[in-house]
Amino acid sequence: MSLPKGFLWGGATAANQFEGGYLDGGKGLSTADVVTAGSHTVSRRITYTMPDGSKHTQPIMPYEEIPEGAVCDVQEGYYYPSHIGIDFYHRYKEDIALFAEMGFKCFRLSINWARLFPNGDDETPNEEGLKFYDDVFDELLKYNIEPVVTISHYETPLNLVTKYGGWLDRRVIDFYVKYCETLFTRYKGKVKYWMTFNEINIMGMLPFFAGGVTKATPQAKAQAVHHQFVASAKVVKLGHQIDPENKVGLMVAYGSTYAYSCDPKDQALAMETTQNSHFYSDVQVRGYYPAYKLKEYERLGVKVEMAPEDAQTLKEGCVDYLGFSYYSSSCVSSKPVGNETGGNFVSGVKNPYLKASDWGWQIDGIGLRIALNRLWERYQKPLFIVENGLGAVDTVGEDGSINDDYRIDYIAEHIKEMDKAVNYDGVELIGYTPWGCIDLVSAGTGEMKKRYGFIYVDRDDQGNGSLKRSKKKSFNWYKKVIASDGADLSNDE
To answer: Which of 199, 245, 428, 447 is catalytic?
Structure first.
């Protein structure tokens, strides 16, 4: 079997993790620019200065409120991986040529909001920033590679945090809509596929990443994400008005959740966990708040402030498709089991039937088929797997070769289950863009050694290295996969 002709094969990245050029071309600071490197065992940290001039840091996980009056900033003595990333800003032609060589049909990237509006609330956009993305899109289109653009991907302009408190302030909706109007107008005819917010559900776990929110209460997170819901709905409608060809989707972090046992209590917990993971897509696909979430807000004493017109706005701005990341599955138990594992900012109980990555993420291709079916049955909207991949330590041989068979095995396993979801189950799937198609900085840990790419980048966790690109074994393998529309998954030289 194979995926249908016209299927969007490609790869995925994010500006804050690979673009670099953090102050080049008039770019302002974003939230990503004040987050240090970390590791698997040491949390990344947010740096800030208090009104008395004292300097402080705070871990991103577990996330706690940043003190009132603190100003997030760049400080000496710390390494901030976003500042250079892998320097796509200066090397985009080289990288895109490699993507074209693999046969990419599309490429998912994000636009750094602060490159276009350095302060977020600027009256006019930064022309130099606009021109950079013009050049990137033109280079992609030269090779017939469709751009897939995430509008906001963990990089809120820092001034919006300092001045307004990030997405806690309703005024940020208007700044975002203005930013999007600029994008839709400037890149009309070049970009058709858009996603409003990357992993919007991360607001519930890491509000600083998700929207520059320095508070951590259920009330603050609920209010901030409501503003993002309204902004997204407005932008969906605006995108269609400016260009009827635009497809504007949502993006959530998603993973299949299993009950640890057949104990009804475990089954009920799995139901509740899955339900909660659907909340963000429920609002954006269906256009209203689900009853289960309203009941939860009642129990927590959360009162979301809504403008009178918000209900109609949500109803009129339902997304065209659902993009999601899938890396792993997890189990939940109603009683302590003592064997927790992690995966894309979330944790659960280890599944005894699954292997795990070097970072403890459970590898579960069948879980992807289950996820595709759950989402398709729930929404009947086209689906797009915009992140999937294996973070691993790659070793460069004496001859320069990188034999990443473990990555090939992981992706092949997941493509097999995609095929089943489409050809056996009837799921409508737009495309597949494995995460970190080129090595980049890990969002969760700030590491380079946690590599996902088909292309190796010579850079280490301390920012050392030539940044030279080289092909891994998976490069030619994925090229073959794309050429066969997923029919040939064999791992032959």
So the answer is: 199
